[in-house]
Amino acid sequence: MGHTIIQQRRGFSSFKLLVIALAVGSLVSGCSSTSSNSARVVDRNAPPVAKRPATTSGQYVVRPGDTLYSIAFRYGWDYKALAARNSIAAPYTIRPGQAIRFDGRSNGQASGATTVVTTSSSPSSKTTITTRPAGTPAKPVTTTPVTPAPVATTATTAPVQVPATERAVGGWAWPATGVLIGKFASNGSLNKGIDIAGDLGQPVFAASDGSVVYAGSGLRGYGELVIIKHSDTYVSAYGHNRRLLVREGQQVKVGQTIAEMGSTGTDRVKLHFEIRRQGKPVDPLQFLPRR
After folding, report:
1. Partners of residue 244 on adjacent β-strands
2. The CATH fold of domain 179-286
3. What would the pLDDT profile of 6-15 be if each residue is shown by its tens digit?
4. C-alpha closest to that of 207 among 197, 194, 220
């Protein structure tokens, strides 16, 4: 009888040990599964955030350092069309405080509310200014903050297809040596050019003959930027440089050093290169020689 009770107790103890072991194993497995499922992989080489398509309403107030070309580039316009819209004749000189309109309205005194597009590095804002006819009582100016978002109406356009005859001429060359780490997005929504990784300070070259129409850091997201006008149809842009070696109005030749590669406005050393045809981004690889 005593022997039987001892065996039963031993069996019960073994059963308890088995239950405890299973519970511990389940807990460890659950923790492992949770850790695995919650792990995140961050791609630091992801394409840049989408930039806005062409702005079709409102206006932009010129700030020091702006050129008509840089404003057209920023808002997706062909510089000639933007100049015509605002009755600005060649050589397209603009001045701080001047209003550049994107819609069809006159640049004179507005008769109603006007949306003013600003370019500060802080989140975008929209200021509503109510004008009044002469002799009427003044009303307060109302400023309404909004969440960061495009402040102007935009129009999405299909990617520009460049005729083969145009691609065959122009004498284009690669703007830098290095590894191609970012390609043009076919719909223009992710990357409006290509990205070339390289070493800090290495030379950046003009991709074709032309005239420097912008050299500065006023375009958010591009860092130190050079824009070159090659013809009435084409301009090219070179972003994220460490140092600019050319000035606005300077004539450059294909292969001429125009800047030093850097990481201004981005998280790694690289050159962001764009070609635009009548203000619209096109794939630079359609123009550059194979390598």
Report:
1. 259
2. Glucose Permease (Domain IIA) (2.70.70)
3. 444 455 455 5
4. 194
